[in-house]
Design goal:
The protein has a single domain, classed as Carbon-nitrogen hydrolase (Nitrilase/N-carbamoyl-D-aminoacid amidohydrolase). 26% of the residues lie in helices and 29% in strands. It has 7 helices and 18 strands. The protein has helices spanning 23-39, 58-64, 72-84, 168-176, 190-208, 259-267, 270-273; strands at residues 10-16, 44-46, 87-96, 102-109, 115-120, 126-128, 134-136, 148-152, 155-159, 179-183, 211-214, 218-220, 226-228, 232-234, 240-243, 250-256, 277-280, 289-292. Helix 1 packs parallel to helix 3. It is globular, with a radius of gyration of 19 Å.
């Protein structure tokens, strides 16, 4: 494929997976789908969160964890990006960060196989859904503390992962730093996905006048965890322009026009209208103010 000039339209593909317990099996599944996406003309390809393995058991997880330098899946993805000459965004891999903690780390890999950007998930998924499902990500993973943005040939990409989507300030900061595209590779539970997935992703797109790319895990995994699927691409107006519509592994593609970002932001320039403001605390008296972050 010919070189794409900055700001020109391109094709984005979301890889919907059902990661297994073993990294080599997950890699084989992802590789087939990535090749399919490239054959269909994709220039930017994103895989979901925890593309290497869906492990919730600590012992099983730590037996399989490798460091970034030693991880076979990351090496294979870098080789694949180089072979296919594509921007490959590995939604995240579970990697060993310390002897006691893993990292949930996203990688943007360039068409020469180089790592363009890394991002460690900031917000840990520690919840009790009240239906027998509970997740305590912080028991195994250490959170990141830095928002990350990267340059693609077509514009700037803000990197996030899954549960981050519930924290709008992160996305506003990325948009204010110049992001035209926001990535949300995920492994949403079925319950939360049915209730909130489409709404949250559309909201992040609308609030920031950005495209949102969200590759998802889907279906019942070997460990019996159920994920929602419905990999999405949302345009800056909040319109869903691609949706897998199910929880089966597969590929969903859409043509992306970066010019739409500027058009929407011109129509609704909310990024320019943000203000700093304070919230009074009536329990502390009328002179006590809490500063709340806003745009300067």
């Amino acid at each position: 494929m010919s070189e794409i000039n900055s700001g020109a339209p391109f094709t984005a593909a979301m890889i919907q997976m059902r990661s297994t317990l073993l990294p080599q099996d997950s890699l084989a599944q992802a590789t087939q789908l990535i090749r399919e996406a490239r054959d269909k003309g994709a220039d930017y390809i994103q895989t979901p969160e925890v593309s290497n393995m869906m492990q919730v058991n600590r012992k099983g997880l730590f037996e399989l964890l490798a460091s970034e330098d030693d991880d076979a899946s990351l090496k294979a993805y870098r080789d694949l990006a180089s072979e296919l000459k594509v921007h490959l965004h590995v939604g995240s891999l579970a990697l060993r960060a310390t002897p006691e903690r893993a990292a949930n780390r996203s990688f943007l890999i360039g068409p020469a196989g180089e790592i363009v950007a890394r991002y460690d998930k900031i917000h840990m998924f520690d919840i009790d859904l009240g239906n027998g499902e509970s997740y305590h990500e912080s028991a195994n993973y250490q959170p990141g503390d830095t928002a990350e943005i990267a340059d693609l040939p077509w514009g700037r990409l803000g990197l996030t992962i899954c549960y981050d989507v519930r924290f709008p300030a992160l996305y506003r900061a990325l948009a204010e730093a110049g992001a035209s595209f926001l990535s949300v590779p995920s492994a949403f539970t079925r319950k939360t996905g049915e209730a909130h997935w489409h709404t949250l992703l559309r909201a992040r797109a609308i609030e920031n006048g950005c495209y949102v790319f969200a590759a998802a895990q889907g279906g019942t995994h070997e460990n019996k965890r159920e994920t929602y699927g419905h990999s999405l691409i949302v345009d800056p107006w909040g319109t869903v322009i691609a949706d897998s519509g199910n929880d089966e592994p597969g590929v969903v593609l859409a043509r992306i026009d970066p010019a739409q970002v500027a058009k929407v932001r011109k129509n609704i320039p909310s990024l320019q209208h943000g203000r700093r403001f304070s919230v009074s605390d009536p329990k502390a008296g009328p002179d006590h103010l809490h500063l709340v972050r806003g745009s300067a």
